[in-house]
Write a structure and sequence with these properties.
- The complex is a heterodimer of chains A (162) and B (181).
- Chain A is an all-alpha fold.
- Chain A has a domain at 6-54.
- Chain A has five helices and no strands.
- In chain A, helix 1 (6-13) crosses helix 3 and helix 4 (62-130) packs antiparallel against helix 5.
- Chain B has 181 residues and is mainly α.
- Chain B has two domains: 1-98, Rna Polymerase Sigma Factor, Chain: A (Orthogonal Bundle), CATH 1.10.1740.10; 118-181, Arc Repressor Mutant, subunit A (Orthogonal Bundle).
- Helix content of chain B is 79%, strand content 0%.
- The longest helix of chain B has 30 residues, at 69-98.
- The two termini of chain B are 37 Å apart.
- Classes of the chains: A mainly alpha (162), B mainly alpha (181).
- The A-B interface holds A 6-11, 14, 16, 41-42, 45-46, 48-50, 52-54, 56-59, 62-67, 69-71, 73, 162 and B 17, 20-21, 24-25, 28-29, 31-33, 36-37, 46, 49-50, 53-54, 57-58, 61, 121-123, 137-138, 140-142, 144, 146-147, 162-163, 165-166, 169-170, 172-173, 176.
Chain lengths: 162, 181
């Protein structure tokens, strides 16, 4: 081997070469002082890195800090959910009061709106079915809205999962 | 992975904070070393370690295999470190335009300090490497992963692990001899 196998020396010191490649480098090192010196340097450097990082230790109270953070987040989320429940109850009570006061009027308005919506749906469906161009446009649009809603719902469910 | 650790991870997945605390105790040094190696700052390394375990707790139930825990945790730490490094670079860029002169003076002082030393320490030299080079040296030499494991962890071919680690070590060697990477 005439060329220096510099690109393989690191894997050589880590014993990550196959037997054939290892034997080739062993043979090269017998005659090449510069590569042999580089191998020694790499071994020393690896030991120095392992020694330096090996003596580092995490703060002894790290797990307590982690648990305190988790407790804090749990308490915050419990507070938020209690707040949301309270808001929902207040809204429900307000709704009951409104219905008891203006229930008849709401019912009349709702009936009118329902009748209007049904008539509009009937007219629109008739127009759509009688004109093929409109029907052709409405069908893909409905399919697109359906797919988009499904994807949005999936995204919302994924982002709110724990 | 020993059976005891396997069981610990399985139990922690059920959300018991005390069991999770035991898991943190077991992995905290590894996580801290990795974070420190990437960031070179004890305060930031502690913050990242803490954040990594909080994230880990939040999504542990979604971990499919207990055997993948260590590599999964490493990925969390690396992503957090990468975010910090990006933020640091952005801050450095904006601060550089505001106080270029002060920065130059600091750099000169640092260079003078370093030139007075015989050679750079591992810590100082590692800080001069690219994040990719730092990462691969830390995974192999500090964490003790084999090439095959690193390849799986980083989702790169074993050949790339081999060439990247070799390049990283040669850069580190050059830097430690007070050369440029």
């Amino acid at each position: 081997m005439n060329e220096h196998p510099t690109e393989s020396l690191s894997a050589y010191v880590d014993q990550e070469l196959d037997a054939g490649e290892r034997n080739r480098i062993d043979a090269h090192l017998l005659h090449c002082a510069s590569c042999a010196s580089l191998v020694d340097e790499l071994i020393d450097m690896r030991a120095e890195i392992a020694g330096f990082y090996g003596q580092l230790a995490a703060p002894p109270d790290l797990e307590f800090k982690v648990l305190a953070t988790l407790d804090g987040r749990r308490a915050k989320s419990a507070g938020t959910s209690t707040g949301l429940t309270a808001v929902s109850l207040v809204a429900l009570a307000a709704l009951i009061v409104l219905i008891s006061m203006y229930g008849a009027t709401f019912f009349k308005l709702f009936s009118i709106a329902l009748q209007f919506s049904l008539t509009a749906a009937y007219v629109l469906s008739n127009v759509a079915s009688s004109i093929p161009a409109v029907w052709g446009a409405v069908l893909p649009l409905s399919a697109a809205i359906f797919v988009f809603s499904g994807l949005s719902l999936r995204r919302i469910l994924r982002s709110t999962a724990p | 992975m020993d059976e005891q650790l396997h069981r610990l991870i399985r139990d922690a997945k059920r959300g018991d904070p005390d069991v999770f605390a035991a898991l943190v105790r077991r992995f905290k040094d590894q996580v801290y070393r990795y974070a420190y190696g990437m960031l070179g700052d004890t305060m930031e390394a502690e913050d990242v370690s803490q954040e990594a375990f909080v994230k880990c707790y939040a999504s542990l139930s979604r971990l499919e295999s207990e055997f993948a825990f260590a590599s999964w945790l490493n990925r969390i730490v690396f992503n957090l470190c990468a975010d910090r490094l990006k933020k640091r670079n952005r801050e450095k860029t904006s601060a550089a335009s505001a106080s270029a002169l002060a920065g130059m003076e600091q750099k000169e002082a640092r260079e003078q300090y370093l030139s007075q030393q015989l050679k750079w320490s591992i810590d100082e030299a590692m800080a001069q490497l690219s994040p990719d080079h730092r990462q691969i040296i830390l995974l192999h030499d500090a964490q003790g992963y084999r090439y095959e494991e690193i390849a799986q962890l980083l989702d790169i071919p074993v050949g790339t692990v081999k060439s990247r680690l070799n390049a990283a070590r040669l850069s580190l060697r050059q830097v430690m001899k007070r050369g440029e990477p």
